[in-house]
Amino acid sequence: MSCILHIETSTDECSVAVSQDGANIFFETVEDKASDSNGRSRGGGKAQQLGTLVDHALSFTDNHAIPFDAVAVSSGPGSYTGLRIGVSMAKGICYGRNLKLLSLPTLQIMCVPVLLCHADELPENALLCPMIDARRMEVYTALYDRALKSEMDVKPMVIEGSSFADILESRPIYFFGNGSDKCRDIINHPNAHFIEGIQPLAKWMSPLAEKAHAREEFQDVAYFEPFYLKEFVAVKSRNLLDV
């Protein structure tokens, strides 16, 4: 038995949800009008929008006398500003209401609607490849099997015609997310499939959050940072030094 507040701000769509015992009982989303064409926030628009959505969610649960057990936040990769705003909001709620913090990988969140809504299309040996647009021909991506076991760690990748070629020879890969659009005309293989309309939203977080909550995989509220800040900034810095 659990009630979890979910916060997702990794792209230009800011969303908040509340789940109770694994079922969503509240969901709101809004597009960040202050973001650029690649989903990177230009300013304080997302902070204001997220605050409004969170206020609505808290009012809903307070009016129904539903106590929270935890806050789950999308941890990246994604928009630098968006992730920072989302994590800051999640931490503030955890401190204010003495709640546990759960961290969910953004790319795994994107896999949830594929597994729930497109399961009949997926062969048993299918690999899921969520992609978040970075810039130019770069994406943040990873590979998972149908059980969300990692087959390729999260990393930035420059998409070329040879990307995933070896894997595609033996297994079908299903590409989705806003980063996959740039791959359609480049990755040409019979085993390459594309699913449209998939994006990280708070309403898809509950299955992962429930599992993490049951396993007590809580984060240290004081020291937790988004995955983007800890890993990808370091990767890009090393790449610049190597040029």
Task: Characterise this structure.
The protein has helices spanning 45-63, 80-97, 106-117, 165-168, 206-214, 227-242, and strands spanning 3-8, 13-20, 23-31, 70-74, 100-104, 127-133, 138-144, 150-158, 173-176, 192-195. The strands form 2 sheets. A 5-stranded mixed sheet has the order 3-2-1-4-5, with helices on both faces. The model is unreliable at 37-41 and 237-243 (pLDDT under 50). The longest helix is centred in the first third of the chain and has 19 residues, at 45-63. Helix 1 (45-63) packs parallel to helix 2 (80-97). The protein is globular. Helix content is 32%, strand content 26%. The relative contact order is 0.18. It is built from 6 helices and 10 strands. Strand 4 (70-74), helix 2 and strand 5 form a beta-alpha-beta unit. It has 243 residues and is an alpha/beta fold.
